[in-house]
Design a protein that fits this description.
single chain, 357 residues, alpha/beta, TIM Barrel, globular
């Protein structure tokens, strides 16, 4: 039987010492220019010391036009390299593996930060977004690849492409709206083309020691369960990925769309995956929750909320099968003791109702 303490091996890069990963979490702690702050460094380094097998950054913008919020980490230019290199070295010193999540906000970017209209597969005046030209799509693919090369240069063990939650890559997968007339719209094959070109480009441009992951949404944002399953099947079968990270919102939930039996997680854990690892995320708040996901067929779990409340969630969950995250709301004093900065606390207080006492 697989346990949380078991190491995890990959076709590329180093083993993880266990099956618990830190989910990529928005924290708004970076400097205005996207460079790493001491607050963000300490938040992530503490999770490395807390026993997570993988520590991943927040969604990190690959071009300035893709920045989605103030205080977002950047990997868009060599100006970001010194901070990223410091972070990679600090995480390696804790014994954790490290990864940068590569991100472009698309129609969900903030034009006030970029100073230009948002980029999107289609025209969306409500989001101040204009349809990208074919050349701009190709340039965006190249920006993800360049960011992965930069992460490798900084010393990270891997990168994860953010294809979930309705950001740019996920917008191209949106069957409701992406009816472009070029090779990037219409059929699912065309809508998935940008994603596949990003994965192929990163794998070609980086060395065998860099792990490549992908985060996907299984349902929602214009993606149906059958199409979400088909995209997952394709990437698992491609041989390009080391792991697929499914963001399930809640690992115990059923599909929202009618006509789909069972739990949402069950629509993905049964897919053939070869040597590619499958992770799941969504309201994993205890050792019991995490073990249940492994029993369902996941190879690892990504923990978000529990990792904010406990910098050592991984360590405690591995040591104690009865461990559960502290009940909410939690105090500011508790979060400060867990290396959550005042900036991060204010973000949580504004956006996560009932999280902070």
């Amino acid at each position: 039987m697989t346990t949380l303490a078991d190491p995890l091996t990959f076709d590329h890069g180093p083993d993880w010492c266990n099956r618990v990963a830190l989910a990529p979490l928005t924290n708004t702690q970076s400097h205005a220019d996207g460079t790493l702050s001491d607050e963000e460094y300490l938040w992530l380094e503490a999770r490395g010391r807390g026993g997570f097998g993988l520590v991943m950054t927040c969604a990190t913008y690959v071009v300035p036009a893709g920045q989605a919020w103030a205080g977002q980490l950047g990997i868009a230019s060599d100006a970001h390299l010194p901070g990223l290199t410091r972070l990679a070295r600090g995480l390696r010193a804790t014994g954790a593996r490290s990864a940068v999540q590569l991100h472009h906000g698309g129609r969900r970017a903030d034009p006030a930060l970029s100073g230009r209209p948002n980029q999107c597969p289609w025209n969306d005046p409500d989001k101040n977004a204009v349809a990208m030209t074919t050349a701009e799509v190709e340039e965006s693919v190249a920006s993800f690849v360049a960011a992965a090369v930069r992460a490798e240069e900084a010393g990270f063990d891997g990168v994860e492409v953010h294809g979930a939650h309705g950001y740019l890559v996920g917008q191209f997968l949106d069957g409701r709206h992406n009816q472009r007339a070029d090779q990037y719209g219409g059929s699912l094959e065309n809508r998935a083309r940008m994603l596949m070109e990003i994965l192929e480009g990163i794998r070609s441009a980086t060395g065998p020691a860099l792990q490549l992951g992908l985060r996907l949404t299984p349902e929602g944002f214009g993606i149906t369960v059958p199409e979400g399953r088909e995209v997952a099947r394709q990437v698992l079968d491609s041989g390009l990925l080391d792991y697929l990270d499914m963001s399930l919102w809640n690992v115990f939930m059923e599909p929202r769309g009618a006509g789909h039996e069972g739990l949402l997680i069950e629509h993905f854990t049964d897919l053939p995956r070869g040597g590619t690892r499958l992770g799941v995320a969504g309201k994993i708040l205890s050792a019991t929750d995490a073990a249940w996901c492994l029993d369902k067929g996941a190879d690892f779990v990504s923990v978000g909320m529990g990792a904010i409340v406990h910098h050592d969630f991984a360590q405690q969950a591995i040591a104690d099968a009865a461990f559960a995250s502290k009940a909410q709301p939690v105090t500011r004093e508790h979060l400060a003791a867990e290396s959550v900065s005042p900036t991060f606390i204010e973000y949580l207080d504004a956006g996560w109702a009932g999280f902070i006492a």
